[in-house]
Design a protein that fits this description.
Six copies of one chain form a homohexamer. The first copy, chain A, has 297 residues and is α/β, with parallel strands linked by helices. The first copy, chain A, is built from nine helices and 17 strands. A five-stranded mixed β-sheet of chain A has the order 4-1-5-12-6, with helices on both faces. A five-stranded mixed β-sheet of chain A has the order 9-8-10-7-11. In chain A, helix 1 crosses helix 7. The longest helix of chain A has 21 residues. Strand 16 of chain E pairs antiparallel with strand 17 of chain F.
Chain lengths: 297, 297, 297, 297, 297, 297
């Protein structure tokens, strides 16, 4: 549609299809890229002529990044390990909120099972989606065991179909609902932004990869931060800054009234409920919290 | 999950189940507490180890706060009255927007009914969910009447099943749709944050209750406020401040250009549409309105 | 409901029903007016006693504005043209984002059709919803053709039912899916805010119309803008301002530390992904992007 | 997909898009043809190599049947009249249930309007989707009036935008909700199966059209009929047949017990609730009602 | 709409609003009455001029039937008991399937509670929706206890808010999910069709009530029955009838082939999976199962 | 819940989770078994004490049937082959409708690819979910190729990520939408009911397996059949039976009128639209089609 020659894309992005698809699009939107998928095509449209991309299953992203079909991509640490993919881990893409636990791949048995340690599984069978990782785990411990690929619904297979499973869990609630007991944790995982080694060595590609990483992280950072501004009597400033370490680096501006100053800072949303009452006690007024789109330190 | 001993909750919160459930969770989220309910359990998870809670029907919150099963809770003024609950009313949780009317419990009859005043109902029957309140209302007026508990759909019961009803209404549109006429208003109501008397007397609990109240109100306040910032020529400042009383207490900062200053303030969203054209006329430039999460004066 | 005499509305607004209805309500909400429609009535409730309104089909708004039943209204440029309505075009209501193409009414034939120019359609039949405009187009070119009103699903009518169609398209994807080829563009269109000529001549009405226009545009403007603030070393200021033209007019405030200054500005969201990495390279710190509700220059 | 030459379709069917689309597919399914539409194409797939078809708006079906683009089609009588289409009306496709009123196009004014008869509208304006029909109606009565095409939501245009409307109604409830009063009925309408005159004259096409008509009507008929079977003592047969005229033509089969016979018949579902208690009183046993797919007398 | 005088309804029906509303409408539809509710009105439309009706809460139906506002109605046995309503129980409306247990109101405590018998609750508190019934239960056993009305979510109140609850359960799965233990069953309940005593004494009303009861039960009966027909060699008939008692009363018809007969009968759907293989072994052929709408013996 | 000892299940059923889950439950329901799954547990409840079951992925059913964890199960022929499972194929579970093509696993390349035959893929890479089957296919043809496991969305991988794919297709429409060309068909597949060899050798288990097979097939058969009954003049019988072979084996019953007979038969629904008009021409009357639940010859 038009004779204008479009610039050739610099990067081919590998994006995870399935459960992470929508959150990936949402994260890129916050970072500044609109990734549109249509029901008629699996090729996303990205509003940046320097970027092209494909959605494939999260399990496969690292394989195709390693092979160079993708210059970079998003996937979980678990699948990088499972595929033994030789890629550059550019950055983590995790929420900084302390209360969010990483997802873990855990070895589980029924609550009532006599199995207490991995060794007790010698000669038994375990089902998992992460076959290579589980085989390595037991081989390292010299425990002979049959590891069987599970196509899904792994948690319902014990004890009828297999003796133990290795499955992923975030809060453990699904395991509890299936009356399973955790014997060991094999792997902690979270989303990573990874790059192909040759693409990373190419200065033009690397610069673009780093720009994307900067903005993805800036958007993620902003999800757990808020802006806070207030007016305070000058004499209260020291008390405020001492009492509230989280405020240690505020922007302080003069106000027209010489005895008052304006403070402005960025803090973790999770501490606002503690800090705000303290600020009021210390004499701050007109305290306002506002939302952020991106935060880059 | 882990041997770390968790701090004992300081407060047990009573939360209203049903029509207010979602908005209550949303309000607490804005205030800074994430209340998660799962379909498998009615016990909410609150991301604050000092808080535990339960969802019960709004009708019952004040009863259990009075008895001390809850230290504090959210419920309507109507049900505090109906239950004659002896509790501390910590604060109102209402939107400050002038145009929003409070909900009212009203005595209604069919449009065509000959009944014009409460007295005309002597010897008749009235259905309501608020039996005690309605009985008191007629007893105070010495009008003999049969008051019958209505399990719901009260507005369709007149004139076939009862002679009048006492039902809740916000805009009156449901009453009009059922061709009902309001004879009298018995009670105005809105959401209250209430506390048990003994909990309120305990300094640790009271401090926590006040913190919650401060942040709930800060979040509610922010829903009807916006931030406004602009640059203005210094010479226009007085005119601006005089012409626009709502701006009377702005943060005024110097700019690099000596003839200009930056103004920033918080105002009611509802007056922006009047103020913004005036500001432009008076010489303000680069006027920007931005959203707020919390406002505490 | 109450004996208080309400002020008489100053303006009657014509609002587009159908596909634009929800986005119109959302745009007015951002501008500061809450337009509520109920399923029981087509008369919207507007929270401004000076405004009344009606939802009619977008095709009819300009007709009723011209006749004076509406003082002003929102509709597309296409339907103003189709109806040859004599109205005041107060302002465009379009997104300023460069990547968004305007919608176009295009003359299309099947990909495999021998028709290459409008002239090739002489003696043929074309279906369209925009009958008058299409007739004028062919009359201007002195091409004899039968133009037939299409009630919808126009794109499936070629080649079985007609030889060509004139239909609206934004990205062309629906045309490509139906294997159609564009022969010519007849009209570009976007949403306009229009006014009746007599209402525009009335100073009171015109002032209110201009206020609405100012705020609608302020809200639209804010959708593609974001606020950006950062701290920077004073010595980097010139480099920053030179390197990044989009930042040319920032609010610059002193900070307590004499070597640092605070910069704040409003920029297009679409350039943030380029500017933010540059700012960091040039020494800016604590870069924060935040969302806006309205922007008025 | 395959070199087998498919038979050329005998008939091109015109099918109504929009509100009738789903019920049309459902009716054809009951009649024995599966019409599949995909989101990727407006061309339906019909599981009969002798049939091809297109979905167009109900308003246009008769026009394209008349022109011969369709051999036959389904549309309303109202649009055949509005388009003055010269087509064969093969059969009605209406439910035989007595309680279902036909849809009517009615001339309406606001309840409070002084207009009582069509004549009172002389010199006024009326809005309608059925412009030609309404013009003819007033011309026949020599009443001068301006008739204006309404793109929809016609019922909300009175009295603000026009003086009267002509709109379609089934039960009148939407008119009452908009506080409109019916002045006159212009047209009753229901779905018709129509054919092109030349197609009807072609024996092969006509035979296929008649087959479709037979099965569509057989399917419609079955929607209001049920099968009823029972055993009865022979001596009660006359009483049963006399008492219940609807049973006058049953299939009567002998049973192994010589004093009893089996009756089986097809009756209107709507009379079962009256007939069944009577049958039991008269001695029938084992009365069973079962559903039907098609009924052809 | 029309001057025809409509017949006065004979009966006023009380219908249960809420969880039973949809299934009640569906049951009446199968029985032969279409009950239509609109979002604009709580008065249902019933396609039988002899019937009028109202939807009220199931808890209130028996009260209004007793008072004579309704001639008859549908409600649960539990609420008839709770209200101590003096009404005629016309018939049960339950599914005959053996595997469906009736709903039960059960006294529950937490699994870990020391309470084992009702006596152990002396001096404690119990919450329930069925206050009168529970008070009677404990009074009969001379156990002093405080019974408190629960507005809902009763199962989450133990042990935090009360010591025990009396709640309704069908399968017990919700109780198990809340880790409750059943101490005793107070009441079994199912849906009843009830009548006012005066209406039942009126021959015209009673006849209509009985007709409705007959058809409601005929429709319910059909939900668990199917029709079965087959051909069988005459010589196998005795073996078939002996082997399969459920077939003991079939309709047997002669066929054109003198050695074969046709059998037809109505049986419980739940036994088909056992009977069908047996029938085939015994020589039956062309065995067909078909669905039923109503069965009246 | 109760001290009654329940019979031990005779069979453990393997049921396919995922895309086939709902249709499997629906098929068993038609056959006479209610399989209930709850969101709280993956163990289905089956209303037959002789049956227990588990839902696992279709890919795994044959593996667990072979190992004896399941006595029998439903899965596709493709996965039996892929797993090289040694199981008894009890019966096919396919719709008999001629127009329904079996699903096929096909080797595909992009439309524009130079690859025309499997041999052209020597040295290339192919992605598939059916790795073993594809490896065998190329090994049999001595074509060296890299076969890579695809986790899904296989059809979007060519040509960017791999050279060819082997994917499943029913109608080919998804392949066409992705602009793929079929090079060869590797496997046709449909659902099979399979059994473990030891279970099949056990007479009690085998009898139960055969009963299930009989009823599943009876239910499937009924989906494409309908019952047809009519009255006909005796003299027309031969003509009817000759003209319409599908009616060759009807049940013929005498009627009370000696010149007429009743015909009843079961025929393919797909031929009704041809047969019904013929029957009417030949003198049949009162032709009725009714639905069936099960058909066992």
């Amino acid at each position: 549609m038009g004779a204008v020659s479009e610039p050739k894309p610099i990067l081919m992005l590998g994006l995870p299809k399935g459960s992470l698809e929508e959150s990936t699009q949402s994260l890129f939107a916050k970072a500044g890229w609109k990734i549109t998928t249509s029901s008629r095509s699996y090729k996303p449209v990205i509003d940046d002529p320097e970027l092209d991309g494909r959605f494939v299953r999260a399990q496969e992203v690292s394989r195709y990044v390693e092979h160079g079909f993708f210059d970079c991509g998003l996937t979980g640490y678990d699948w990088i390990q499972e595929n033994s993919s030789d890629v550059v881990e550019v950055c983590d893409l995790v929420y900084s909120r302390a209360s969010v636990r990483k997802s873990r791949w855990v070895l589980c048995v029924p609550e009532a099972s006599p199995i207490q340690r991995p060794e007790d599984l010698a000669g038994k069978r375990v089902a998992t989606e992460l076959v290579n990782t589980v085989k390595r785990y037991f081989a390292d411990r010299k425990i002979p065991i049959e590891v069987e690929f599970s196509w899904g619904a792994t948690e319902v297979k014990v004890p009828d179909l297999v003796d133990a499973i290795v499955d992923i869990t975030e809060t453990g609630s699904s395991l509890r609902a299936n009356k399973l007991r955790i014997v060991d944790t094999l792997l902690e995982t979270n989303t990573k932004f990874i790059a192909n080694r040759r693409s990373w060595a190419d200065p033009v590609k690397r610069k673009k990869i780093e720009t994307i990483a900067l903005l993805l992280r800036g958007a993620l950072e902003a999800e757990t931060k808020v802006g806070l501004k207030m007016n305070a009597p000058k004499r209260a400033l020291d008390a405020i800054l001492q009492a509230i370490p989280a405020l240690r680096n505020p922007t302080i501006s003069p106000l027209s009234h010489p005895d008052w100053i304006a403070l402005e800072t960025i803090i973790d949303e999770s501490v606002v409920r503690e800090i705000l009452p303290r600020l009021k006690e210390l004499g701050a007024e007109g305290i306002v919290e506002y939302p952020l789109n991106k935060v880059v330190y």
